[in-house]
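Quiz preparation item.
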């Protein structure tokens, strides 16, 4: 699990939605989400579940792929 790759993916998934909105829906602080997106921290397992549910993705798609390609329209993954 590469924190920087996961962070980039989380940032891409969030898109134009504000950090405040996403963090409120997931139940974490804005600063925690920012640290995940910047690759400074990896969320605990229970938060990974909440993030995956919010983005309607599997935990594997977001957190367990060592190499991934996130398609242009942010709706498909390949390369896992």
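Solution:
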């Amino acid at each position: 699990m590469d924190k920087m790759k996961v962070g980039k993916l989380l940032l891409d998934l969030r898109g134009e939605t504000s950090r405040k909105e996403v963090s409120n829906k997931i139940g974490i602080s804005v600063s925690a989400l920012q640290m995940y997106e910047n690759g400074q921290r990896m969320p605990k397992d229970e938060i990974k579940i909440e993030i995956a549910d919010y983005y309607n993705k599997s935990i594997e798609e977001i957190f367990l792929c060592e190499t991934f390609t996130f398609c242009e329209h942010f709706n498909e993954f390949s390369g896992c």
